[in-house]
TrEMBL record:
Protein name: Arogenate dehydratase
Pathway info: Amino-acid biosynthesis; L-phenylalanine biosynthesis; L-phenylalanine from L-arogenate: step 1/1
Its job: Converts the prephenate produced from the shikimate-chorismate pathway into phenylalanine.
CC annotations in GO: chloroplast stroma
GO molecular function, one term: prephenate dehydratase activity
Lineage, uppermost ranks: Eukaryota, Viridiplantae, Streptophyta, Embryophyta, Tracheophyta
Domain named ACT: residues: 326-417
């Protein structure tokens, strides 16, 4: 294994846990990643199918609220109106091959079985599972923080371990999972850039976020003492979150990166390594039979990782609770584009919670020729912005319409409820 520093790109570590996880081999099936579709967004925001789906969601939420507003409560429809006019809540004129209604027969309340309840908009909105277990893909093995985040986002879900972030995206695209839960940033370690790049490359939608307090432990085989240790292994984010504490503990160790924290614990247990410790959760210690040498070794007690939940379809944005919207954009050139974009939000009193820039993969460099001085190489970026508003709000729609005027590319990654769970920095997982 190679020694690493926390800032290196560490996705390709050599330690692989032995438990079966979704991996590259599961990529056998047809790749059903949506590619450059040509549907034009009516208001001009982007041109992809994903944008179109987002706009559909926005439109249906408007229709929903209009329906609610315009309902004539003084004259409720009769039961026969319902039966004749609606099939599962939808008016229909097409032949659905249903048993014909005998108009002459007096309408009787049906005995057995009770009539099927029409689907309502709330049945469709949060999850497609309707009682069955949600399958949630995450990167890592059982005991990883991502697994805990999946459990927080979808209690009682079936968590599906994947060996890479990319595989978690594909698990959803190939219908092996219903959702993916992926870390995007940590309060100490910063952004998980890989996932920002993957959000752009894939066509999944952000449908929610969870913030997980991350409480790290130093784990080793039973009987191992701190003095025996020559190396500490963990996920690069975890290594960086504990950098100072590991130094303060006086350990004479090298730090090495692996795919995930729990995978590190499992690796030590499987290979009976008495000179190696892992940074991982207390749950990982329990799962892989390790002892906790030090508890709470993150450099800050309030260490939190933010995860996003991804789905094939966007959710319908609402205005009855705090929402966040994530977008990504690029611009060709021009003066003060970033300033103009940010003003579009500022003038509407919309708070930005995050800005991240990543290299523009398709066009990383722009050459600017100056006859006198030579050629300057300008780096090109994709800008990711999170703002506190719902796409169901007119001010957010107007802000984006304005942003679109200055940008060459704009995509709404998702409009989703903010995680508002009370702050509790104590014990995480
Ligand atoms: O390795 C894990 O346990 C993970 O879930 C990954 C991950 C990350 O990528 O940031 C998640 C939360 C912690 O910040 C450390 C690691």
């Amino acid at each position: 294994m190679q020694a690493v520093t926390p800032t290196q790109n560490l996705n390709s570590s050599i330690i692989r846990p032995s438990k079966p996880r979704l991996n590259q081999l599961t990529r056998f099936a047809v790749r059903c990643v949506y590619r450059s579709d040509s549907v034009q967004f009516p208001n001009g925001v982007g041109s992809s199918r994903a944008d179109w789906q987002s706009s559909c969601a926005i439109l249906s939420s408007k229709v929903f609220s209009q329906d609610q507003d315009s309902g004539d409560k003084s004259n409720p429809p009769s039961a026969s109106d319902h039966l004749a006019a609606a099939v599962n809540g939808h008016k229909t004129s097409i032949d659905l091959n249903l048993v014909p209604i005998n108009k002459n027969k007096k309408l009787q309340p049906p005995s057995q079985p009770p009539p099927q309840k029409p689907l309502t908009i709330t049945d469709l909105s949060p999850a497609p599972m309707h009682g069955s277990q949600m399958r949630v893909a995450y990167q890592g093995v059982p005991g990883a923080y991502s697994e805990a985040a999946a459990g927080k986002a979808y209690p009682n879900c079936e968590a599906i371990p994947c060996d890479q972030f990319e595989v978690a995206f594909q698990a959803v695209e190939l219908w092996i999972a219903d959702r993916a839960v992926l870390p995007v940033e940590n309060s100490l370690g910063g952004s998980i850039h890989r996932n920002y790049d993957l959000l752009l490359r894939h066509r999944l939608h952000i449908v929610g976020e969870v913030q997980l307090p991350v409480h790290h432990c130093l784990l080793a085989l039973p009987g191992v003492k701190k003095e025996y240790l020559t190396r500490v292994i963990s996920h690069p984010q975890a290594l960086s979150q504990c950098e100072h504490t590991i130094t303060k503990l006086g350990l004479n160790v090298t730090r090495e990166a692996v795919d995930d924290t729990a995978g590190a614990a499992e690796y030590i247990a499987t290979n009976n390594l008495r000179d190696t410790a892992a940074i991982a959760s207390a749950r990982a210690a329990e799962l892989y039979g390790l002892q906790i040498l030090a508890d709470g070794i993150q450099d800050d007690l309030g260490n939190v990782t933010r995860f996003v939940m991804l789905a094939r379809d966007p959710i319908i944005p609402r205005t009855d609770r705090p929402f966040k919207t994530s977008i990504v954009f690029a611009h060709d050139k021009g003066t003060s584009v970033l300033f103009k974009v940010l003003s579009a939000f500022a003038f509407r009193n919309i708070s930005l919670t995050k800005i991240e820039s990543r290299p523009h993969r398709n066009r990383p460099i722009r050459l600017v020729d100056d006859a006198n001085v030579g050629t300057a190489k300008h780096f090109e970026y994709m800008f990711y912005v999170d703002f506190e508003a719902s796409m169901a709000e007119v001010r957010a729609q107007n802000a984006l319409a304005e942003v679109q005027e200055f940008t060459s590319f704009l995509r709404v990654l998702g409009s989703y409820p903010m995680d508002m769970t009370p702050w509790c920095p104590s014990r995480g997982v």
